[in-house]
């Protein structure tokens, strides 16, 4: 194999890695639909459904600026808004907060009462929608849509320019765990004056919370409940194609040295997409790629394919973040970024990166929802996570559909019935539990 062929094989493997890790765009029959959601950003999506919004800019301790969108239900008065329990919804890898607003064209703002939070999901039938953000806002939750550093909405810094300063992109999910997540939680609690909030994460959005709770167990008092959709920490049993790509000698080292941005317009995406799919008809490429992408085509909301694809332009992360996942695939561990022996000694006081200690998590309000057919959050890796937890799960829920995959939590047509009803019930049960604890404390006084 000559050098050029090796290079293209290498690019193909990396493209597989990019296409399949955690939250990428689905393939499907792409038709001209003229759906206005295709051209809408988060603000436009929110207002198109009759809601108002606030944009909050959270500056992290390491000077990144995160764009966070708060959905405002216009039917709730200013005084009543203060009673709404805050819930943060956190997207996965190569995604954004819009992920939770685009599965269906409905979800229009409607009147609600804070007491609606205590209703079982099947007792409230007029706000059914596949769009989790709008669903919760119509159930009188104070919804905050997070955006991880590096995507379109959080591509900012107090001193670094992401278009000029390569240093901006020197981060992975370690920094999201150490800075983004706790800083966002503290910001929301400070604004709302609540003692705790709900956290709903998908994929990487669960990983960063598991990491935070293992590093800073005190945050379990601030996060009630933590709902993990398609939870991910360990990735040693991930799809074979990804293991193959991560194990190519020198691949991760080369990417780490290259660094920079990983997004829809970045060079690595353009080059590898052209190599992998540029020479085939779109349908042929779709047939090649979709088995690797972590969703079930027959269950996907096909009417929204163009919307799903258009939103990918507003995502982004760092190449280092991709590398970090690859490192953990190879090491079969949930560990911090590996900088190499010399730099590891400087940063970690040892030759190897330290591992996140799941056993340190003390939260009793962790709920996991997962699919048996998940190829990106493999059931064997999930069981390893559960085994290491020393506290009981608040809810352990396997999706009844045996074909349910990783991205079906985002793209499936029957998302409300299959997932969101369970999410609503977990939030309700958590609220009841908190009310009991509060009543017990008052009784003691």
From TrEMBL:
UniProt xrefs under Gene3D superfamilies: alpha/beta hydrolase
Name of protein: Lipase
Domain spans labelled AB hydrolase-1: 135-410
Domain Partial AB-hydrolase lipase: from-to ranges: 42-103
Transmembrane segments: 7-25
InterPro entries xref list: AB_hydrolase_1 (IPR000073), AB_hydrolase_fold (IPR029058), AB_hydrolase_lipase (IPR006693), Lipase_euk (IPR025483)
Residues at the active site: 203, 374, 406
One MF annotation (Gene Ontology) recorded for this entry: hydrolase activity, acting on ester bonds
GO biological process: lipid catabolic process
Family to which the UniProt record says this protein belongs: Belongs to the AB hydrolase superfamily. Lipase family.
Keywords: Glycoprotein, Hydrolase, Lipid degradation, Lipid metabolism, Membrane, Signal, Transmembrane, Transmembrane helix
Species whose genome carries this gene: Tetranychus urticae (Two-spotted spider mite)
């Amino acid at each position: 194999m000559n050098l050029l062929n090796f290079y293209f094989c290498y690019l193909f493997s990396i493209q597989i890695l990019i296409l399949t890790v955690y939250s990428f765009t689905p393939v499907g029959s792409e038709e001209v639909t003229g759906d206005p959601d295709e051209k809408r950003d988060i603000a436009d999506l929110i207002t198109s459904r009759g809601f108002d919004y606030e944009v909050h800019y959270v500056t992290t301790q390491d000077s990144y600026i995160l764009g966070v969108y708060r959905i405002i239900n216009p039917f709730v008065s200013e005084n009543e808004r203060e009673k709404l329990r805050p819930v943060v919804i956190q997207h996965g890898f190569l995604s954004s907060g819009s992920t939770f607003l685009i599965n269906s064209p409905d979800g229009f703002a409607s009147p609600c009462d804070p007491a609606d939070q205590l209703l079982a999901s099947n007792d409230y039938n007029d706000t059914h929608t596949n769009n989790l953000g709008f669903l919760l806002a119509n159930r009188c939750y104070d919804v905050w849509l997070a955006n991880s550093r590096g995507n379109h909405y959080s591509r900012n810094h107090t001193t670094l320019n992401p278009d000029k300063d390569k240093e901006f992109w020197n981060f992975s999910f370690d920094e999201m765990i150490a800075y983004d997540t706790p800083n966002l939680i503290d910001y929301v609690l400070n604004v709302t004056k609540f003692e705790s909030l709900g956290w709903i994460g998908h994929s990487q959005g669960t990983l960063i919370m598991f990491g935070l709770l293992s590093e800073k167990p005190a945050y379990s008092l601030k996060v009630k409940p933590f709902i993990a959709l398609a939870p991910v920490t360990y990735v040693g049993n991930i799809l074979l194609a990804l293991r193959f790509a991560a194990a190519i000698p020198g691949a991760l080292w080369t990417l780490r040295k290259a660094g920079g941005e990983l997004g829809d317009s970045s060079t690595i995406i353009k080059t590898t997409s052209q190599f992998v799919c540029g020479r085939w008809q779109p349908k042929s490429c779709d047939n090649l790629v979709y088995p690797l992408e972590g969703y079930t085509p027959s269950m996907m909301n096909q009417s929204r394919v163009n919307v799903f694809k258009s939103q990918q332009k507003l995502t982004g992360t760092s190449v280092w973040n991709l590398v970090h996942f690859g490192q953990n695939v190879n090491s079969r561990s949930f560990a911090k970024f590996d900088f190499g022996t010399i730099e590891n000694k400087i940063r970690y006081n040892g030759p190897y990166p330290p591992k996140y200690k799941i056993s340190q998590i003390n939260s009793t309000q962790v709920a996991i929802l997962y699919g048996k057919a998940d190829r990106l959050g493999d059931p064997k890796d999930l069981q390893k996570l559960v085994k290491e937890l020393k506290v009981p799960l608040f809810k352990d829920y396997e999706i009844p559909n045996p074909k349910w995959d990783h991205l079906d939590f985002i793209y499936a047509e029957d998302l409300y019935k299959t997932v969101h009803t369970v999410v609503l019930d977990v939030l309700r049960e958590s609220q009841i539990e908190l009310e009991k604890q509060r009543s017990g404390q008052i009784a003691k006084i």
